[in-house]
């Protein structure tokens, strides 16, 4: 599947974990905040600024939604 980050990058990724890692690395390298760094797009999904992958569109997000991939490390 392809990860697209605005007009900056389009790259083939093997899974949601890889998409999250690449998105987060690009975000960190940019030095930008959430208001200027674009959402990552995957077919039928998106990567939010925090690196989590969600089903659907960011405009359809609702409280209580659960990410399909959560990049947080379990403690």
Explain this structure:
Strand 4 and strand 5 form a beta hairpin. The chain has one helix at residues 16-30, and strands at 2-5, 9-12, 40-42, 45-47, 53-55. It has a five-stranded antiparallel β-sheet, covered by helices on one side. The termini are far apart. The chain is globular. It has one helix and five strands. The chain has one domain. It has 75 residues and is an alpha+beta fold.
Task: Sum up the structure in keywords.
alpha+beta; 75 residues; five-stranded antiparallel β-sheet
Topology:
Elements: E1 2-5, E2 9-12, H1 16-30, E3 40-42, E4 45-47, E5 53-55
Antiparallel strand pairs: 1-2, 1-3, 3-4, 4-5
Write down the overall mean pLDDT: 94
State the order of secondary-structure elements, H for helix, E for strand: EEHEEE
Poorly predicted runs of 5 or more residues: none
How many structural domains in the coordinates? 1
Side-by-side strand order of the widest sheet: 2-1-3-4-5
């Amino acid at each position: 599947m392809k990860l697209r980050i605005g007009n900056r990058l389009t790259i083939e990724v093997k899974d949601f974990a890889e998409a999250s890692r690449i998105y987060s690395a690009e975000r960190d390298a940019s030095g930008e905040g959430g208001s200027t760094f674009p959402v990552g797009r995957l077919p039928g999904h998106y990567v939010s600024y925090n690196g989590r992958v969600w089903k659907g569109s960011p405009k359809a997000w609702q409280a209580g939604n659960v990410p399909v991939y959560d990049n947080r490390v379990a403690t």
